[in-house]
Write a structure and sequence with these properties.
- By secondary structure, this protein is of the alpha/beta class.
- The protein has 3 domains: about 90 residues, Immunoglobulins (Immunoglobulin-like, Sandwich); about 400 residues, TIM Barrel, CATH 3.20.20.80; about 80 residues, Immunoglobulin-like (Sandwich), CATH 2.60.40.
- The chain has 17 helices and 26 strands.
- The protein has an 8-stranded parallel barrel. A 6-stranded antiparallel sheet has the order 19-20-21-26-23-24. A 4-stranded antiparallel sheet has the order 1-3-6-5, covered by helices on one side.
- Helix 10 links the parallel strand 15 and strand 16.
- The radius of gyration is 28 Å and the shape is elongated.
- It binds calcium ion (CA) (2 copies).
Length: about 625
């Protein structure tokens, strides 16, 4: 009897203790996406609700044209997922979503907006463009008042190369005219979403997928950047990360689902860079799984895109930024590392909604064959279909850098081009000598800037979509480490002693490089043969590399002298390129060279000549 009484008391006590938890009312603190639009092809949207006690809920909008088709609740009652259907004839406006359960009711506003139909939006990018890559924290500080934000990761310290230096979107907006005059045509900004984390000035540790980092500005500032860029004929490329988030993302402390991440904070794979296994037909499945699930660093939890709710979240989030801002293209980080089936679906969703859009994937590998396998339309047998239109040409980057450092010759550059048969679309290769992850071209040149200039000439006149890292136009050196190569642009920051955005503020040497690169960029803009023309090249001989670029009636010969000394170039083997024309016009100097009597011309050592086959 006493024993029974004891048990009854225990049960009562337990019930009493649990009561507050059961009594906790239902609440919704946040909803994502924060809005959607009428008239999107993707009009079935899944809302994620953040709140408390979201068990056994029902959901309903105050319009029959906004239907809730399904409600999903998972084990964690702090989240729920509501599938909605947006009718095409719904009037734009703010609608109320009511969430109900036995524990209460919550009402949330959900704006449905009309779409911006400006024809300049979502234009994509391609070989007609030149991409200018900016690390936003390091380019220009347009608003010193946002340098410090009140959180525990302030980290503003311009004197420390690893900390934040105050660069922001306003700084970039203020330099758009400079960039337009330089004749670059697209801006790729390293990630701009909120990064509340240690040493996260680079932006690769997202902590809020729907918020521009306040140190860079607001969401409206980002949209303004895109609009102002478009006004000047410049496109904007968003640096996007499907693979991972930052350790301080609120999800990490309170996972929406047990399988939201690959592994956990306490127990995850590290250092499994088995990149070749992504497409190796002999690879063990386990190796491939490790490649896709390991964490790059402990501060970057790896996302499990196989979770269908997370997959939908990421796809909608990308569509949201494109629609919200009007941006034109995406550079996808660490492409071989997320789930490939998911990536394919992510690309399909983007390109269905925005057919002119372009996406370039970072597949950092040394082999063209390997990289080509990831491009949409590859002829190689494959287990999965990627829908990735563009890839980055790392093998060409390596050949340029080897040449600059005297470890390679022009023949090595030629050989990369000669393997282009591997690619489904050679126009859709992003080409570059350096980027935000590699020591700058002028740094590795160790004073031999003529070699960099020669490579810049090839970069801007051969095939592909050239990318230039900010500061290349002034021969910026930076340093070996990431934090040093991403140096501040002189003149972009409070207290800078000079302003290298202006001719007067540049040194003599900087102006010389600036003038040279500007000239190349102007030529590329004026002569479509240089950008989108078909390329025909000759096997390099005696350190001379020649290629023809042809578009419609325009024919341009690029001749590159990779010798230290001036050479007399024999053009007899390419006489058929002249089509009976007896002269060449040097497009840089304007000089007309007669080939009437002999098919020869002189070219300075370590230089490139760009000649129009003219009738004059
Ligand atoms: Ca600032
Ligand atoms: Ca991964």
């Amino acid at each position: 009897m006493r024993k029974h009484l004891q048990i009854a008391i225990t049960i009562l006590a337990t019930a009493f203790c649990l009561k507050p938890a059961f009594a906790q009312p239902l609440s919704v603190e946040k909803i994502e996406p924060p809005n959607w639009w009428v008239g999107m092809k993707n009009n079935s949207v899944q809302l994620i609700l953040y709140g408390k006690n979201l068990r056994n809920i029902g959901a309903e909008f105050n319009s029959p044209k906004l239907k809730v088709s399904e409600v999903h609740t998972l084990a964690n009652p702090d989240y729920a997922f509501v599938d909605i259907e947006i009718s095409e004839d719904l009037s734009p406006g703010t609608y109320a979503l009511t969430i109900r359960s036995d524990q209460g009711t919550a009402e949330i506003e959900f704006p449905i907006l009309s779409r911006n139909t400006d024809k300049h939006r979502h234009a994509g990018f391609g070989p007609q463009d030149v991409v200018y890559l900016i690390t936003p924290d390091r380019f220009a500080n347009g608003n010193p008042f946002n340098d410090r934000v009140e959180d525990r990761f302030n980290e503003f310290d311009p004197r420390n190369p690893s900390k934040r230096h105050g660069g922001d979107l306003k700084g970039i907006i203020d330099r758009l005219d400079y960039l337009k005059d330089l004749d670059v045509t697209a801006l790729w900004l390293n990630p701009v979403l909120e990064n509340n984390g240690k040493l996260s000035y680079h932006g690769y540790q997202t902590t809020d997928h729907y918020r521009i980092d306040p140190r860079f500005g607001s969401n409206d500032d980002y949209r303004r950047l895109v609009t102002e860029a478009h006004k000047r004929g410049l496109k904007v490329i968003f640096d996007h990360i499907n693979n991972h988030i930052g350790i301080n993302h609120p999800w990490v402390k309170n996972l929406p689902a047990d399988d939201w991440l690959n592994g956990s904070v306490e127990n995850h794979l590290s250092n499994k860079h088995y990149i070749s296994s992504a497409i190796d037909i002999h690879a063990d499945d386990k190796t491939r799984e490790m490649l896709r699930t390991f964490w790059f660093v402990d501060e970057m939890p790896d996302l499990n895109q196989k979770n269908p709710f997370l997959a939908k979240y990421l796809i909608q989030n990308t569509l949201w930024w494109i629609e919200f801002s009007g941006l034109d293209g995406i550079r996808e980080d660490t492409y071989p590392y997320p789930d490939p089936a998911y990536l394919s679906e992510w690309e399909r969703a983007i390109l269905t909604e925005y057919p002119n859009f372009n996406i370039v994937g970072e597949i950092w590998a040394e082999s063209s064959a390997f990289i080509s396998r990831f491009q949409k339309g590859t002829a190689f047998p494959k287990e999965f279909e990627t829908n990735l239109p563009a890839v980055m040409d790392f093998p060409l980057m390596i050949a340029y850098r080897d040449f600059i450092q005297g470890k390679g010759t022009l023949k090595d550059i030629y050989e990369v081009f000669s393997e282009d048969f591997l690619y489904a679309d050679t126009d859709n290769l992003m080409t570059f000598i350096d980027n935000h992850d590699t020591a700058r071209a002028f740094y590795i040149a160790e004073g031999k800037s003529v070699r960099v200039k020669l490579c810049l000439a090839i970069l801007l006149t051969s095939r592909g979509i050239p990318e230039l890292l900010y500061g290349t136009e002034i021969g910026m050196l930076g340093g070996e480490r990431h934090v040093d190569l991403r140096a501040d642009f002189p003149g972009g920051f409070v207290g800078d002693k000079r302003n290298a955005f202006t001719e007067a503020g540049r040194t003599k040497k900087e102006n010389e490089i600036f003038d040279y690169l500007s000239e190349l960029l102007h030529l590329r803009k004026q002569h479509p043969a240089l950008s989108i023309g078909k390329m025909i090249h000759m096997v390099p001989k005696d350190g001379i590399y020649m290629y023809l670029k042809q578009y419609k009636e325009e024919r341009i010969i690029v001749i590159v002298n990779g010798n230290e000394r001036q050479q007399r170039i024999d053009l007899s083997e390419v006489g058929h390129w002249f089509n009976g024309v007896k002269s060449l016009q040097n497009l840089i100097s304007g000089e007309v060279i007669s080939c009437e009597n002999e098919m020869k011309l002189k070219l300075d050592g370590m230089s490139a000549g760009i000649f129009s086959i003219s009738d004059r």
